[in-house]
Amino acid sequence: MFEVIKTDGRARRGRFTCAHGAVQTPVFMNVGTQGAIKGAVSAHDLRTLGCQIELSNTYHLHLRPGDDVVRTLGGLHRFMGWDGPILTDSGGFQVFSLAGLRKITEEGVTFASHIDGKRIFMGPEESMRIQSNLGSDVAMAFDECVENPAPYEYVKPSCERTLRWLARCKMEHDRLNALPDTVNRQQMLFGINQGGTYPDLRRWHMQEIASLDCDGYAIGGLAVGEETQVMYDIIDAVEPCMPKDKPRYLMGVGTPSNIIESVARGVDFFDCVMPARNARHGKLFTWRGTVNIKNEKYKTDPCPIDPDCGCPTCRSFSRAYLRHLFTAGEMLAMRLAVMHNLWFYNELMARIRQALDAGAYETFRRTWSERLERRA
Ligand SMILES: [Zn+2]
Question: 184-199 burial, b for 16+ CB within 10 Å, e for fewer?
Fold first, then answer.
């Protein structure tokens, strides 16, 4: 299911296998929130862009079109036309960040839909049932994601409850996988580490959830308000407590540099809306640094966004054309920009894996970590 092929320092080169195929790690999951990648990019395009695993959001698909609808249509793979691996988040993050008027109890969370205000209850069992209906390859445990900084007196009982919720998730997940008509009976379950910015809570929580023997473990509740160095410190604190033979997923991270630095700290899976979101605003990643394609200086520039990029956008179109599309408000601007940035992220991960295969990760990190952060 997960095999560490090679290590380089704390960095790991691995292979993850699930019902819909194998994933070479470290990997960046391309985010299709509502079963589509924002910017008019389809599952068909994801193949072209080198995507290995797609991530969709439980909260959004539960509200619209409804996970029962997706199940009726054969599950999310068939619904969105993607036959590769899919991970679904638990809905927890959106419930705590998007939904209005929420009330947390031991049972779960009652909240108001951000679409129509309708009151909805979601707890560990509901989250597992929704993700089972979607039929993803990896389901994420239902947790409370606490924004940083938060007081210790709040974070401690919260992560204790998240631990109790994980035990309930696991029971319900096992029950659903044993039913004969479940969409994907080989669905796996990843537990999520919480504990805010407190190393002692993080380590305690990680040890507790590791004993529940999930299929993989995520570090949640980072990149939610804390300084970048604090995030790295927390990964450093919690990583030694993570099982070595299970995949590790850092949720919602991040910039190319964040990814390079976190791989060095032993992380295997990443996801982030940043490449697609930045692209929709004309902010592009290149091997020479970041570019704002809306800039006046690109008005007559005949070169591709990145001469070193092999993406469909760079192979056919100039900076001047892309800038024109943004200026004219053409939808194609977003599509071409998102395709470039997702290609870049997938290519970044491929180069990270190559460096690990070659036993040269430290050189790769020194060469690129800072350079990719700068403006071109
Ligand atoms: Zn490109």
Answer: beebbbbbbbbbbbbe
Q: Active-site residue among 8, 45, 89, 215?
A: 89
Instruction: Report how far ligand 1's centroid is from the alpha carbon of 8 (Å).
Output: 29
Phi-psi region of 86 (alpha: psi -120 to 50; beta: other; left: phi over 0): beta
pLDDT in single tens digits along all 376 residues of the chain: 999 999 999 999 999 999 999 999 999 999 999 999 999 999 999 999 999 999 999 999 999 999 999 999 999 999 999 999 999 999 988 888 887 778 999 999 999 998 999 999 999 999 999 999 999 999 999 999 998 999 999 999 999 999 999 999 999 999 999 999 999 999 999 999 999 999 999 999 999 999 999 999 999 999 999 999 999 999 999 999 999 999 999 999 999 999 999 999 999 999 999 999 999 999 999 999 999 999 999 999 999 999 999 999 999 999 999 999 999 999 999 999 999 999 999 999 999 999 999 999 999 999 999 999 999 9
Catalytic residue among 8, 137, 271, 306: 271
Rounded Cα distance, 173 and 322, in Å:
46
Q: How far is CA 208 from CA 106, 192, 222, 264, in A?
A: 18, 11, 19, 25
* Per-position b or e across 313-336, b if 16+ CB within 10 A of its CB: bbeebbbebbbebbeeeeeebbbb
Do 70 and 76 touch, CB atoms closer than 8 A? yes
pTM of the model: 0.97
How close is the Cα of 311 to the center of ligand 1, in Å? 4
Geometric angle at alpha carbon 186, from 181 and 189, rounded to 5°: 115
40 CA to centre of ligand 1 in angstroms = 16
Residues 6+ apart with CB under 8 A from 155: 146, 194, 195, 196, 198, 201
Q: Are 345 and 258 in contact (CB under 8 A)?
A: no
Closest CA to 279 of 45, 44, 62, 24: 45
